[in-house]
Amino acid sequence: MPTPERSPVLVSACLLGRACRYDGRHNKDGELERALAARGLDAVPFCPEEEGGLGTPRPAAWIETGSAAAVCDGEARMVTESGADVTAGFLAGARKALETCRANGIERAFLKERSPSCGVRNTHVAGKLVEGPGVTAELLGRAGIEIEGVEGRRD
Ligand code: SF4
After folding, report:
1. What average pLDDT does this structure show over 67-94?
2. 49 lines ligand 1 (CB under 6 A)
3. Is 123 in the pocket of ligand 1 (CB under 6 A)?
4. pLDDT tens for residues 15-31?
5. CA of 21 to the centre of ligand 1 (A)
6. Could you tell me if 91 and 135 are in contact, meaning their C-beta atoms sit under 8 angstroms apart?
């Protein structure tokens, strides 16, 4: 009997246990990993902020004003808590996420909620949690990638 084909999906690396959060921690979600495996989905770990050259650990950052859409359109900035402009790194990471999807035939992404990059339903603007996506989720969504927000947990 032929082996069923497995589909690759992009997954926020911190959800798979990589200590790539801004504070050097992770959000490993064993339940997510088991659910993906049971559905025949191969997780491709990706951290847009590391891939964008922001380093780990790194200062907390957020959308300065407006939305991730405005950042993607060049109309708003990403800033750290001390006001440094980190827009270029966030955009570079988001673009690399999309390149990774295209290079691997990935059409779905499971992304960590509340992140300024990966948040799907919620992200941070001016240091506050608000409705709306982060920069990577915005860019992937624009490109037609199906995105799903994951809360993440420790286990
Ligand atoms: S939420 Fe996204 S950007 Fe933040 S650590 Fe996880 S993978 Fe990296």
Report:
1. 98
2. yes
3. no
4. 999 999 999 999 999 99
5. 6
6. yes
**C-alpha to C-alpha distance for 79 and 74, rounded to whole angstroms:** 14
The mean per-residue pLDDT over the stretch 27-45 comes to: 96
Q: Which of 15, 16, 20, 50 to mutate to test the pocket of ligand 1 (most atoms within 8 A of CB)?
A: 20
Tokens of 139: 């860019």
pLDDT band for 3, please (50, 70, 90 cuts).
Answer: low
Residue entry with tokens 């300024």 = 116
CA end-to-end span of the chain: 36
Q: Is 118 in the pocket of ligand 1 (CB under 6 A)?
A: yes
pTM for this entry: 0.96
Average pLDDT over residues 118-137: 98
Instruction: Specify the amino acid at residue 92.
Output: A
